[in-house]
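Case study B.
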Amino acid sequence: MINIKNYFSDNRLKITIIENKISILNFLKILTLSENEIIIKTEINEIIIGGKKLSVLKLFADEILIGGNISKLEFRC
Amino acid sequence: MNSKIKIKVIGKDVNRFLIRLNKNKINVYQVSNKKNNSCYLIIDYCNYSNVLNIKTIYEIEIVEYLGAIRLKNNILKNKVFIFALLICFIILLFLSRLTYSIKVTTNDKKMNDLLIKELKEEGIYKFSFLKNYNQLNKIKNNILKKYNDKFEWLEIERVGTGYIIRYEQRLKSDDIKDIKTYDIVAKKNGRIINLDIESGQILKNINEYVNIGDIIVSSDIKLNEEIKGSISAKGKVYGEVWYKVNVKLPKDYYLKKYTGKYVNTYSFALINKKIILKKDKFHDKIVNEKQILKNNLLPIAISKLEIKEITIKKDINLKEVAINEALNKIKANLNDNEYILDYVIIDTKKNNSKFEMNLFVSVCEDIGEYLVR
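Model:
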C-alpha cells in the first residue's frame, strides 16, 4: 500500500553523485566543514566526504550540494 | 515575490559561518568565490536580518539586490529620472495630439477662407486637439449641410499632426432658367407697406389690407379686363403684420452681464483631484469646460476652461426686461430687411412668483410668396 504521507513528504536520506558533485537530501547537521573533509550527520549515520578543494555550493535546511575533487565517500555508524 | 540578495561574508573561518547559517535554517542558494576568510552568498532578502543577528564577528555586506527588490531599488534610485520620463511622455502625448497644419488643396481664396472659418468654429484650428474619424465625419457633414449650395463634396483627411482638406465646389444653378410662371400671393394677413416689384401686374396697393392667399402681383397682364399676355411675377412685398407676445419672468429675476474679462486655462484631473493651471480672481463667473483628453485606462483627464467674469444685477426693472425679451423673440425670426415697427403693452400681471406681460408688436416683414400658376 502506498504511504501517502511519505509520497508527499519524503524524509528518507538521499545521496546523488553527479560527476564531481554530491547532493545530500534530508541530512541533520554539518559536523565538519573544511577544504579536505566534510562530515555530515544523518538520522542513521555520519557521511564523510574526503577530497581536495571541497566547497559547499548550495545549502538549505535539509539539503546540501558539495563540489570539488571528491576522492572518498564514507559511511560511519 | 521572493527577493534575494548577494552578500559578502568576511571573517576568520567562513565555513563555520555556513554551518551556523544551516543551524538557523537559513537557505543559501549559491556560494561563490569561496576563500578561507571570505565568500559570496545568495540568500533570501527576508533572512537578511536573521543573518545580521547571528553574524557575531563576521562582516556582512550587501553586494547586489536580485529579483523584485532589485527592481524596487532601481525605481527608488532613479525616481527623479522616471518621473521626468513620465512627464516627458505625457507632454509628448499632449503635443502629438495637437494640430500643426491645415492645408486646403484648392486655390479659391474666398472659399478657402470660408472653409477655414467654418473649421475653426467646429474646433479645427492650429494648436487645437486633433479630432478622430467620427468627429471629422460629423464636422464634414455639418459643413456640407450648412453650405449645401457651395460644396458638392468635402473631405477632411488627418495626416500626422495636420489635416488636408479637399473639396469640390458646387456649380450654381443661376444659369438654369426657371420657365414656370408665378403669382406673388400673401403668406400672412397684413397691411402692405412697400412694393418692390420687377415684373407682373400689381393688384394690391400700398396701405391695402391683404389676407393669406390674396394675389398681390399677378402674372396676367390685363388691359380693359382682357388678358394681353403673361409674365412671371417677380419682386418683394413688405407688409405690416401683428403678433401677440407673452413673456413670463420669475419675480426674483436677475441679470447676468459679462464684464469682458476672461481667463483661458487648462485643468488636469487625476483620479478625484483637479488642478487648474491658472486661477482666476473673479467673484461671479461662468466656466465653460471642454474635455480634450480622457483615457479610460489612465485616471487622468485634461480639460480646456474658459472662465468669464460676470456681474449679477438683481435690482432691475422687470417691465423693461420683459419688453426687451419680447422684442428679441420677434427679432430672432426676422431677416435683413425686416424690422419692428411699434409695440403696445396689452397688460401686465404680477403674482407671488411671476411677472407676466402681453405685448402687441407690429412688424414690417416680407409677406409675399411665389405661387405657380
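The helical segments of chain B are 14-23, 48-54, 68-77, 79-96, 109-121, 133-146, 318-331. The remaining cases will be described in the next quarterly update.
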